[in-house]
């Protein structure tokens, strides 16, 4: 009888790839987790229980066929494992690194619920695809036949790139427009290198270029080119701009020098630390934490990126203020633990109410307690009277989330309908908007969300757009 390759979660304990020691990893922007060795990847994949109803798959926005590629990995069939992974996920090596697996696939693993420790799905996914790149299994797009239709995509983030990939595979001519000098969106300039090294993103962009996708970088729609001109140049347009307008913070002294936006801070750091670019505001110290007492306001993944970046830049101290407690924070618990190991201090149940100094030198803070649940079911923070104190700070980073820009006004396109939150109103799954031939995907529709959801939206939209193009071609042929 053949030996059972799976269901070894009882005999084999969960094991993550080795994590570099905090005192070493906080000195650079390299990824903190080592790669699985082949034997270790096979061993950890073999812990999968091969559920009849795989909750890991159903809780993955892309519905990745996780049990199958775990089994293929456990039995040494890595090229097939990669093909299975790539079939549903445009960028598996990226999702393997940055997805909050503790809230998605791994958090819903059946053996985790039974007390045996989840399968390390993200690490195996990363290993499969990195192995595929190393062995030359990842090939540029080669459509079976070219089509005459062209699609313009505004935004070179994960959603736009996923749509570009799917459309090129069908032979559609694709041009991607983006305001930045490099493609990738937040993958390139928002997420720090210690979570996602930039050569991982750039090689995917290069692969898309090799497959025939045209990139027009440094193009700000509404200024350098009009939205109407893009529409006129293509058979269809996909809006995939993301949301980049930072939520602001009021209170006395909120306009003081030294209070900066998270997106500006992270972009400057990524350009300087990961690409070696000369960034004036980084060089001058405006967007550089070196030697400073840093306070980051917020509790999401962007806040975690900021505090860990500040540590690596040589901050004197780094504190994170969040108005709820640890159990109710929106950011990844894994990232919070990594930050604490690296020296970040979290001040739970605190909220800023003002700032001191013309050049900021302190944050006036109120202590909070959790009261009754709000509409979302989370306990609402309440102020504790008389609990104010001042937190010393030379640099304050606002990581309070992002909102959509006013695209109808910026692009002089009043016919583009938006919701009351300012996001583009688009049809669920297809991305169709109020304008014929114009689609919208990702955060500009959902609001600030996860990379994996943007990839899902890009793939779904590409499928719907292809269906629409085929329908139009059929009508024209009659």
From TrEMBL:
Q: Which domain of life is it from?
A: Bacteria
Q: Lineage in the entry? A: Bacteria, Pseudomonadati, Pseudomonadota, Alphaproteobacteria, Rhodobacterales
Task: Identify the residues that the record assigns to the Dihydroprymidine dehydrogenase domain, covering every copy.
Answer: 25-136
Q: Please tell me whether the keyword Lyase is annotated for this protein.
A: no
What keywords appear on the UniProt entry?
Answer: 4Fe-4S, Iron, Iron-sulfur, Metal-binding, Oxidoreductase
Task: List the source organism.
Answer: Mesobacterium hydrothermale
Q: Mind telling me what this protein is named?
A: NAD(P)-dependent oxidoreductase
- Enumerate the Pfam families for this protein: Fer4_20 (PF14691), Pyr_redox_2 (PF07992)
Identify the residues that the record assigns to the FAD/NAD(P)-binding domain, covering every copy.
151-458
Q: Which InterPro entries match?
A: DPD_II, FAD/NAD-bd_sf, FAD/NAD-binding_dom, GltD-like, Helical_ferredxn
UniProt keyword Coiled coil, yes or no: no
